[in-house]
Amino acid sequence: MAILKWSAELDTGIEVIDGQHRRIVDYVNQLHEARERGDAEAVGEVIESTVEYTLSHFAFEESLMEDAGYPLSKPHKKVHELFVKRVADLRMRFRAGEDISGELHGLLSRWLFNHIKNDDHDYIESVKRNMLNLTRETHEGGWLSRSLGRFFGGRH
Amino acid sequence: MQILTWNEGLNIGIDVIDAQHRTIADNLNRLARVRHEGGGSKELEQVFEQTADYALFHFGFEEELLEEAGYELLSSHRRAHAVFVDRVRELQDRFRAGENTSEALHALLADWLFNHIRHEDRAYVDTVRAYMAGPRS
């Protein structure tokens, strides 16, 4: 397990999405650190925070894609669902007392990296075009705040 | 075990699918590298797991896309994926039981996958492109 370093190929150029992705990478690194320290309680807490945040991120992202009329939003949503199922399974095993933090870290780091690079990059053009249209019609802060509020509450 | 060099002939012309296929090829090459460098069974098991995992995600994405696009050969395509997954799982189970099946996994990936991309996946391109270009409700 290594500390994940942000690399340029993870940037989508959509600031709000890149911010959320960076936050998830931070959580993944926190998981690694908690594990290194042997701090089981912290591991448990980070797992919960990571899962919750990732779910909100997925919902936000799916909303962006659908609003933009991105043609592959349903298949993209499908891989989100598959990932959530995998993580839910790991969380259940963790709650039953099994140390799955290594497996979770591996899943998060490798899957996330590939998902951002392959799948998220594919929606950039559609979403950026839509965001430009939206900011022409409404104040950006208004639209963005509303969307973030919908999925993250005060936690974005 | 050969290292696979991606070539233009493996692109089917749908960017996100090509990117996912390239990732599977990368996993294949990682497996070859870990084996060549004498990686331990823990490391091999990890690569096995990640290779199988990613293929599942890719199949999920692809099948959903084919369903949305109304691809007429969807059910046989799904069946082909299912056969592959069963084979990978069998190799994984045998690996966990102590048998080194990493070479068999590599061979499966290299043969099955690249034939599947070149034939079955290529066959859906027109339908999917038409779907992506057309109006959606």
Secondary-structure map with pairings?
The complex is a heterodimer of chains A (156) and B (137).
Chain A: H1 15-37, H2 40-68, H3 73-95, H4 101-137, H5 140-152
Helix pairs in contact in A: 1-2, 1-4, 2-3, 2-4, 2-5, 3-4
Chain B: H1 15-36, H2 41-69, H3 74-96, H4 102-123, H5 125-133
Given the helix and strand composition of chain A, which structural class is it? mainly alpha
Distance between the termini of chain B: 48 Å
Give the assembly state of these chains: heterodimer
Enumerate the spans of chain A where pLDDT stays under 50 for 5 or more consecutive residues. none
Number of strands of chain A: 0
Number of strands of chain B: 0
Q: Which spans of chain B of ≥5 residues are poorly predicted at pLDDT below 50?
A: none
How much beta of chain A, percentage-wise?
Answer: under 5%
How many distinct helices of chain A?
A: 5
| Biggest sheet record of chain B | none
Estimate the helix proportion of chain B, in percent: over 70%
Question: Residue-averaged pLDDT of chain A, rounded?
Answer: 88
H/E order of the elements of chain B? HHHHH
How far is it from the N-terminal to the C-terminal residue of chain A, by CA?
27 Å
- Global shape of chain A: elongated
Helix and strand string of chain A, N-terminal first?
HHHHH
